[in-house]
Amino acid sequence: MTTRTGEELRNKQQTHYEDVNEGQMLPDYVLGPMTPTHIFRWSAAIENWHRIHYDQDFAVYHEGLPNILVNGSWKQSVLPGYLKDLCLPDGWMWKCSFQHRAMIVPGDTITCWAKVTSKKVIDGLGFIELEVGMKTQDDIETCPGQATIVLPLKGGRSVPYPFVPPKS
Amino acid sequence: MTTSATKLTPEVKSVIGATSEFTEAGWGVVNKEGLRRFTHAIMDPDPRYWDNDFAKTTRYGEVIAPHLHGGGGGRPPWETLDPVSYTFRQNPIADSTRDAPSGRQGALPRVPTDLVRLLNAGNEIEMYKHPIMGDRVYSQNKYANIIERVGRDGSHMLIVTTETSHWNQRGELLYINRGSSIRR
Predict the structure, then answer these.
(1) pLDDT tens sequence across B105-141
(2) Which residues of chain A are within 8 Å of residue B97 when distances are taken between CB atoms?
């Protein structure tokens, strides 16, 4: 399991289409343990005043939840961010879809993960289909989903930016 | 509470396809301080978000922002009333401020349902371009679909899918987010 630093992201070497294979687990990324402060910081940053994210009494006694919850909107920025990192420096995180299946609460440590399910070359670019998610330390999948990332081929053309999806 | 009454009423169905105005998204102009708060909160230390010198050497040529920094957010404009005070004067046990008059253009009509609890069900996101410093981000919302599900306890709930597309001030598509929420 890994964390990431700015220096690692600054110096990351490109993963190419040829470097990944069906069934391969890509490097994961661990966040946490999450605290109420992490959760409140996100709510404050985006001005989300849904009380289940910062008011423990309301979350537990009114909503019947085990604790305050990590925001779905936080996960929808964090999981694509993890996939963005896998593509650096010159690939592209094109599509990502996921469900919010289980709660993340203070004390949880989260592992973002991705597994290659298929790959193909379209218009000279490598399209990698992934199964993705965010698991807790208890191996509970909180955020199952799929993603499509685009990687260059070795010696191939650059992934266009802004990204232009294939016509087919 | 168990009930057999459908929640997917004709009134609810009538808002499917409703599209908002094309309007400036909630975050306003992408700026350094907002970007710092956002990237700290998502724990992303990528220097592409803050190191000008390094960013110039990347394919982007300048500091970029995470896609979702450009859209969403609940920031009410200056001229509106305080949504927090308004909400809790109306309902001291409100679960959020979502029913306060937002004063924002681009809001979709309220889904006409008596289901009051709201949970984030999932997202489908397509990325095309990063916002950059100084960008104004514009968006348009649409109720893409509303379906009904019945829970194990027999209670009915709605799953509301809202599609929001985001562009910069040059008309370049940044990203599309199809977010689904559960009303129960």
Answers:
(1) 567 888 999 888 888 889 999 999 999 999 999 989 9
(2) 49
Tokens representing residue B57 in the block: 């050497």
Dump pLDDT digits (tens) for A96-117. Answer: 999 999 999 999 999 999 999 9
> Domain B10-30+65-183 belongs to what topology?
Thiol Ester Dehydrase; Chain A (3.10.129)
8 Å CB contact of A76 and B68? yes
How far off is chain A from B15, nearest CA to CA, in Å? 24
What is the four-CA torsion angle of A104, B159, A40, B26, rounded to 10 degrees? 140
Q: Which ipTM value was assigned to this complex? A: 0.94
The count of structural domains within chain A is 1
Residue in A with minimal Cα distance to B53: A10
A–B interface: beta-carbon pairs under 8 A? 130
**Interchain contact, B42 vs A78, CB within 8 Å:** yes
Chain A interface test: which of B30, B43, B117 (most A C-beta within 10 Å): B43
CATH number at residue A102: 3.10.129.10
Domain coverage including residue A86: 6-31+73-151
In A47-165, where does DSSP find H-type helix? 56-57, 72-87
| Residue B59 pLDDT level (bands cut at 50, 70, 90) | very high
The backbone region for B43, taken as left when phi is positive above 0, alpha when psi lies in -120 to 50, beta otherwise, is: left
